[in-house]
Amino acid sequence: MTSNKELLEKAKEISQRAYCPYSNFQVGACALFESGNFYVGCNIENSSYGLSLCAERNAISTAIANGEISKLVKVAIYSPKSSKCFPCGACRQWIQEFAKGYNTEIILEDENGECCSCYIDEILPYSFNLI
Ligand code: THU
After folding, report:
1. CA 27 to centroid of ligand 1, rounded, Å
2. Ligand 1 atom, smallest distance to 55 CA
3. Which of 15, 24, 41, 129 could form a disulfide with 59 if both were Cys (CB 3.0 to 4.6 A apart)?
4. Domains (range + CATH), the chain
């Protein structure tokens, strides 16, 4: 199993590929699934601002497009512009969808450059669910 520190490193690396000419706020994410496979994503902005894609949803989309069907167990998120770069509301809902009942761990970097984590059920309590 990939360590939290390694996942954060992968999020850091991919944040350098962010396409964010409007906000100049780079974000990278690395999503680890129960299968042991991981997928990375960066944010991709658009001149029509509302069409921008977050790093977390990019990583999860890549996972699904690659045939990943297991539970989403960990997501590391990194921005060089902010310590503890928590996922936005939309990304929390996406993480919760692919957690499939598992309490996914969210891995962040704190202000001292150390790994820290929280869980999706903590940051998205009473979430909307159809299944
Ligand atoms: N962003 C992410 O990639 N993930 C989040 O969870 C929040 C925000 C991106 C979107 C936009 O490109 C930039 O950060 C500034 O909002």
Report:
1. 6
2. 3
3. 41
4. 4-55+67-86+103-123 (3.40.140.10)
